[in-house]
Amino acid sequence: MVERVICYRGPSTVADVDELADWLRARVDADVRVRDRFLEAHRTDDLPEKFAEARVPSPYERETGNTMLGTIRYEERALEHPEREGGVLYDGAAVQRALNAALPAEERGLETLHVAILDRAIGTWGDHDGRWHKRVNVLGQPALVSVPGLYEAPAKPEAYYKEKQRHALLSGDAPPREVLENQVDGEFLIEDDPRTTDALKGYALQAFHYLETGEPFCDREGCRLFNAHYHEDLIDAQLREPAFCSEHAQSYEM
Fold it and tell me: At 154, is the secondary structure helix, strand, or coil?
């Protein structure tokens, strides 16, 4: 049984982890606390190399890792200055193992859930289609919640990709938020979206639910515990009422 939940801030993101923790506190029977960034609170000397080993060099190659000295130096800088990190995909399972090993032994048991809000993109390998898939979260200990994954993992409307490509051909850079929102029909989240914190609440609750019950996700669309593969479904599950399906409302509805 989960007795404590420790949520870690993501300082280079717009996610308000204190607000997220307040939301969790009202819904779970556990002591919910907030700490500063996980990679600061539980820094170990081998983390730069572990992140280098977890790098995904190609979306279609199962093998990971680049431990050349320059890459490890990059990872050292990324730990010191998280706002400079970006554009790299990491094997979520490998990162999770590395962060689990970095936890103090007395906090590694399953009665204490660690929820690390990360400013890095994480993924899992799909045996069914032979490619890496970005994820919003990786459940387990610690649970990883990727803020870039919230924007990048679920598929956006097809028109979004077409508009982005068209704008890049004309101007050579990515279109600004207002262009995308005005030109693309359909709802989606993009980087630094003001709805980020609200959307992440359900993903943090999924981490608690998994450790508490062993159930990974809810298969009912529209429930906060649903694992959405499209942005429209993500918004429906995380940002619209009702917050939960009838079954999970009994456990988590205030």
Answer: coil
Options 3.40.50, 3.40.390, 1.10.760, 3.40.1800; CATH of 4-151+191-220: 3.40.390
| 239 or 185: which leads in pLDDT | 239
**What is the spatial distance between Cα 53 and Cα 67, in angstroms, rounded to a whole number?**
6
Task: State the Cα–Cα distance between residues 127 and 9, nearest whole angstrom.
Answer: 32
Q: Contact 188/156 with Cβ under 8 angstroms?
A: yes
Residue 82: both structure tokens together: 């998280």
Does residue 162 contact residue 151 with C-beta atoms inside 8 Å?
no
CA 171 to chain centre: 31
Return all residues near 15 (Cβ < 8 A) that are at least 6 apart: 9, 117, 147, 196, 197, 200
CB 160 within 8 A of CB 184: yes
- Predicted structure pTM score: 0.92
Measured in Å, how far apart are the chain's first and last C-alpha atoms?
A: 20
pLDDT of residue 180: 75
Q: Of 18, 248, 220, nearest to 8 (Cα)?
A: 18
Model confidence over 120-171: pLDDT tens digits?
999 999 999 999 999 999 999 999 999 999 999 999 888 888 888 887 888 8
